[in-house]
Structures are given as structure tokens and as C-alpha cells.
Design a protein that fits this description.
single chain, 9-stranded mixed sheet
């Protein structure tokens, strides 16, 4: 009996003693039909379908108030000796960030930088939705594809400012170029938040589908990492007729069979993952231990986001430390052993502060964190989208320092039309950290989708 057959047999055997019906691992529920819920104030009525140009303009008094808070930051608790960032971002690094923010960061200059791309707002299901819409300047002889780029937490559309030129500028030897639409998730940055409970990642997918319809873009690629990956999966699953292809820099298999196979393959990891990446998947005790170490934020945001939001909304020092801690360990877990957290190696401080400023000036840290509580709710999980394979051509760009690495053999259950899988030396914020690498991966994937379509 071959190794593959042995693993298949073990899948059958293990399913019996754990008390779960065998069929539950393989049955695929029907795709749910989502209502177009009204998330804005009042009751559903006629909606302004206009698309309005938008520019970021922050009153001087908002910046003055910020500077006062930065100057009056209370003395921070000294870090423990030789602890580096193992207890979270150190107060030493936080003080350096606050000093830069107060004395070297110019919001007026950064405001001009953030306004370099065309931005718009439009009402979708009662909410003002903000988005960047960047078209290629030169597309002669090329096929132009719309690309819906979706960010995550604790990011924003700021993550995409460096990758957009790569995607919208013709590349030598390429047959395609992209028209980029990058919306702010509802409750993040310049997009309005829901006024009532229930707007989780699935409902965001409905809103973004409607945004693309509003723009008269009915066939498009969708790409995302973090929450963007989850929302992109939902769009591709709910509206496959609209999605040409799905590309993600955080692919995962959340189907029940995926968890079972991962456990069974731990008996012989070489059957499922290359030796050089085995430490990213096994032993499972170490991997899940690291996930627990890095996911405390998730539990509180999924249960009590408003309590935490009050503290972060009132303190720029708190907001900066809370967000930048993720940019340390999620860029590379070893960076927590460095005094500077590795931040200045991968990013410019101005760029990191741009992202923090978007949360600060819009006061959206609380509403951004609510996405966790809404997406992990019983109402959300009862839709059973986690059990449904993504039905469109898919591509996965894995970054080995990210918080999750899923072997190709496990991805194939979730993405049965998986055309493209690559591995790269970077972390969670790929568009921010290595924009050219991610852009080229998206191009490579799109060309495989095009080749597949031409050969049908």
C-alpha cells in the first residue's frame, strides 16, 4: 500500500473514534444567499448611487490635539532586563516612535502623499464606502483587468500605496495590466461603520460585490491578505460568476477535512510539506503554541472590542504600541529579539505612522476591531462558508514569516482550482513589505488564468 493510500485510510479510521460522523468531513453545504442588509442609520430607503470624489482633509485642531496628547504622554513603565519584545513592544521603542511622531512626522506632507491617488466615496447599503480607484495610464495593446484589493487589520488602504504603481504600470513582457479598486473595509479609516450588530466578513463581501457592480465592473480579480483573504474567499464563493480569479497572500484551509488531514499527516510530514518548510507546520504543538502566543488580541477583539477601543481611541501612545507590535512579530517572529523590533529594516517610520494616523484621525480603531466579534459570531459560522470550497481559479502566495503556513496538499481541498502556489521570504504585510514581489506574483497568477481560459 502506497503512502498516499495509507494516509487516506488513516483519515477514515481517525474519523470514527473521535465521535464525528464521517460524512461531516466531506459534505458540502449549499452556498447561502445573503440579504443586502441596511447598515446605516434609520430604515432602508432610497439610496444615493452617486460616486463622489474624495480627498483626505484633516482640520488643524485635530493635529493640534494629537500633538498635545503626544507631549503629555505619561511616563512609560521601563521594560524588563533583556526581555526585548517578548512581553509586547517595549516602552523604549514606543518612546522613540512617539518622539518621531511628534518631532519628525509632518502630517501636511503625508496628507499630500495619501491624496496622490484618485479616491472616492459612494453609499452602499446605507454606508459611505471609501475606495481608491487607479487606472493604468498606458494600456495600449494590453488586456486591462479590474483588481479588487482588500486590506486587513491592523492595516488599511495605506498598505497598497507602494504596490499600486507596479500593478497599474505595464510590465515588460506582460500581456495584462490592472485597474485597481482598493476599498476601506466598513468601520476602517474613511468607510463608515455599521450602526447595528451583524456586519461581519461575509456581509463585507456583499458590500464589496455591490461596490464593483456600482462601478459597472462585473468581472474582476480579487486579492487580499489577513481579513482581505477571508473577504476575498467569501466573494469568490458567493459570487463566482463575477470573479475571474482569486489571489491571496494568506491562503488557508478552514474546512473540517483540512484540520483532520493536518493531524494525520503529522505522522509523516514529508508527504505533505517540503523538509525546509516542515518547521512551519509541525510539530503541531509548537505551531499552535505560537498561535496562542500571538492571538491574545484576537480573543479580546472577538469578545470585548469596545472596552479596548476606549483606551486606544484616547491614547496615541496606546494606539501606536498596539498596532506596531503586530508589525514586529508578524513581519518576522524573530524581530521581537531585536531592540528596534526590526521595524526600520523593513519599513519607513513615516509609512507606519501613516497607517496609524488613518486610525487616529478617523477614530475607527473600535469599529475596526468589531469585525472580529461579528465574524466569529454564531450567526456568521452558521452560514457554513468554511465548509465550501472556493470554486474559481485560485493562486496562493505564501510568505514564510507569516503567522500561518498551509502546505499545498491541504490547500487543494479548499481551492480545487488551485493554479499557482509560491513561497517567498517575507511576512504578513506583504503588500507593504515587498510590494514588487507580491505584484509580480499576482501577474504570474493572472497569466496562468488567462492561459487556462484560452486553452478551454
Amino acid at each position: 500500500m502506497g503512502s498516499g493510500a495509507i494516509i487516506s485510510l488513516l483519515v477514515l479510521v481517525v474519523s470514527i473514534p473521535i465521535g464525528i460522523k464521517f460524512v461531516s468531513f466531506f459534505d458540502v453545504p449549499p452556498v447561502p444567499k445573503l440579504e443586502e442588509t441596511w447598515w446605516g442609520p434609520g430604515t432602508k430607503g432610497s439610496e444615493d448611487v452617486g460616486i463622489r470624489p474624495f480627498k483626505i482633509t484633516v482640520p488643524d485642531e485635530v493635529i493640534s490635539d494629537l500633538n498635545i496628547r503626544l507631549r503629555n504622554t505619561r511616563a512609560l513603565v521601563p521594560p524588563l532586563e533583556n526581555a526585548k519584545h517578548s512581553y509586547g513592544i517595549t516602552s523604549t521603542l514606543t518612546k522613540n516612535v512617539l518622539d518621531f511622531w511628534l518631532n519628525k512626522y509632518s502630517w501636511k506632507k503625508r496628507e499630500q502623499f495619501l491624496n496622490q491617488y484618485p479616491q472616492f466615496k459612494t453609499k452602499i447599503q446605507g454606508l459611505d464606502i471609501h475606495f481608491l480607484h487607479v487606472k493604468p495610464k498606458d494600456s495600449k495593446g494590453l488586456k486591462v483587468y479590474p483588481l479588487l484589493l482588500i486590506h486587513g487589520w491592523p492595516g488599511s488602504v495605506r498598505e497598497f500605496y507602494e504596490i499600486i504603481p507596479h500593478l497599474t504600470t505595464p510590465q515588460k513582457g506582460r500581456k495584462v495590466v490592472f485597474e485597481v479598486i482598493a476599498p476601506s473595509i466598513p468601520g476602517y479609516g474613511f468607510s463608515e461603520a455599521a450602526v447595528r450588530p451583524g456586519l461581519g466578513a461575509v456581509q463585507v463581501a456583499v458590500i464589496f460585490k455591490n461596490l464593483m457592480n456600482r462601478l459597472k465592473l462585473n468581472h474582476y480579480y480579487v486579492q487580499g491578505g489577513d481579513w482581505g483573504s477571508i473577504i476575498a474567499n467569501h466573494i469568490a464563493t458567493l459570487y463566482p460568476q463575477n470573479v475571474i480569479g482569486l489571489h491571496s497572500n494568506l491562503c488557508f484551509n478552514d474546512m473540517p477535512i483540512g484540520y483532520l488531514k493536518k493531524a494525520v499527516y503529522s505522522l509523516k510530514p514529508s508527504l505533505i510539506v517540503e523538509k525546509k518548510y516542515e518547521h512551519l507546520v509541525y510539530p503541531m504543538s509548537t505551531i499552535y503554541g505560537n498561535l496562542i502566543l500571538e492571538s491574545g488580541y484576537m480573543h479580546i477583539q472577538a469578545t470585548k472590542p469596545d472596552t479596548l477601543g476606549t483606551a486606544l481611541s484616547d491614547s496615541p501612545a496606546g494606539l501606536a504600541s498596539y498596532i506596531l507590535e503586530k508589525f514586529i512579530t508578524w513581519t518576522n517572529p524573530k524581530y521581537k529579539e531585536r531592540e528596534d523590533g526590526g521595524l526600520t529594516e523593513k519599513y519607513k517610520m513615516e509609512d507606519l505612522l501613516d497607517n496609524i494616523m488613518i486610525y487616529w484621525i478617523t477614530g475607527t480603531i473600535t469599529t475596526s476591531m468589531r469585525l472580529y466579534s461579528e465574524s466569529f459570531s454564531t450567526a456568521q459560522t452558521s452560514l457554513q462558508l468554511a465548509k465550501i470550497p472556493v470554486p474559481v481559479p485560485s493562486g496562493c502566495s505564501r510568505f514564510i514569516h507569516d503567522i500561518l503556513y498551509t502546505p499545498t496538499g491541504l490547500l487543494e481541498d479548499k481551492y480545487p482550482k488551485l493554479l499557482h502556489v509560491t513561497d517567498h521570504e517575507a511576512g504578513h504585510f506583504a503588500a507593504f513589505e515587498v510590494p514588487e514581489v507580491l505584484a509580480q506574483d499576482i501577474y504570474d497568477f493572472s497569466e496562468k488564468v488567462l492561459s487556462l481560459a484560452l486553452n478551454k
